[in-house]
Predict the 3D structure of the following.
Amino acid sequence: MQQSILKEPIVIAENLSVSFLIQRHGINNFKDFVITMGVKSPFEKKNVLKGLDLTIYKGECFGVMGRNGSGKSTFLRTIAGIMKPDEGKLTVKGRVAPLMALGVGLEPELTGMENIKLVGTLIGFEKTELNASLQAIIDFSELSADEINMQVKRYSSGMMARLAFSIAVATDPDILIIDEALAVGDMGFRNKCAKRIDEIKAAGSTIIYVSHHLEEIKKICSRACYLEHGRVEMIGDVHEVCDYYEHQVIRKKA
Amino acid sequence: MKQFNTFPKFWGLIQELALKTVKLRYKNSMLGFLWSMMNPLIYLVIFTFVFSYAFPGIDRYPLYALTGLMFWTFFSSSSIQVIESVINNSGVLKSINVPTIAFPLAAQVASLISLFLSLIPFSILMLIFGLEIGWETLLFLPILFLFACFTFGVSLILCSLNVYFRDIQLAWTSFMPAIFYSSPIAYTTSVIPEKFLWLMKLNPLYHFITILREILYYNRIPSLMQFLAIFALAVIPLVLGLYIFKRLERGFVSQY
């Protein structure tokens, strides 16, 4: 009973279809385009998501699994508002913080400090918000005062990942999307990331987590779905879906 | 869902991106700013040597050439940067929900900032070569603004096409010298035979450069017709550019 009261949908996908424009084979340059103009369109649509139905509830940690090319990233991009649905409906309530790839938007020539401002602005911080959380970001990243004023191109990849993650999780977003971005940094930092994710979860945010790493998914998520050919093939308890995923992979291999 | 729905927030993003571009341009080379001045200066020296002999009729030739070169440098550098802006930021655009238009717009703003910085040495040079400052000089600002709108509109069209066909940016770079030599930057239109003058007037740059010369070189207030012409030349490409960009934007993400 209690459970059902708490269940407030935050992401609702109804018959969601999203497509890519794929350059038709043989038309890769302007010359071909001009020659075939009017005869055939240089692009064809490739449906990545085909009528996907899914509801994610507020405050839960939801895992998305599926083989390469099954539409996981496209689904996340659509939630983040980067891609637009062709058909169907997608309702997303609240601010989305996408963590699609770590280090996106970082400018190697600028210092860590300058990058916090740059990437912070890109992911939608206002100036005042940014100044308020500046110290928190630096503290979380565990970069020393020297390091934060160093050009990011001189960072080790771990340091860069720490900086990027710190900026992304600086505020509690309504929805945090993590696309296989956690396997970074040293042990200590990874634990800290996991802790921060728990904190975000405790603050009432929803987390959508994509990974091929079953142990990781089982540890973080409570519910999960398995995508195949742009549709939800299975949805349910994380352990059941993980088992199903394992079976699928073994079956396909055999 | 819209994260940059308020104007101050969107403008904050443009500022941050434009400042980044300007900073990067001048950060790694000690003489960064001076280098960006080199290109027009080299042209100026060559032109002065070659053309002031070829067309001895032009009074204060260096000033004449500079007024054209200033606009040309702005046009060529900003169009290239705007055209490449979306492709160069594809990594960001496919993982963060940022309005795509922010990148071309920031590139254009960055070019404007660079232009204003270069105005300092340019105006010193122009004063040396006999520029006379009067009230009409102030008209420089609205003309520049309209020219920036024109540049942005044209570049935006090419930028949207460039996402689908990368040939565009290559073609544009090789097309540049043709535009340069068909614009009255180094020469006056008086050397063009009367019957071909209409051809020259098809080049939008002709109108912008002529009106700029009216104020900076001839110290005259341009006619209303001239203003209306550049106003139309600024607004039409801008509206068209924004429209085409909006139409093609949806498919961008598939091309990154």
Q: What stands out?
A: The mean pLDDT of chain B is 89. Residues 224-255 of chain B form the longest helix (32 residues). The two ends of chain B are 22 Å apart (CA to CA). Chain B touches chain A at residues 1-4, 8-9, 12-13, 16-17, 20, 23-24, 27-28, 91-98, 164-165, 167-168, 171, 250-251, 253-255 (CB under 8 Å).
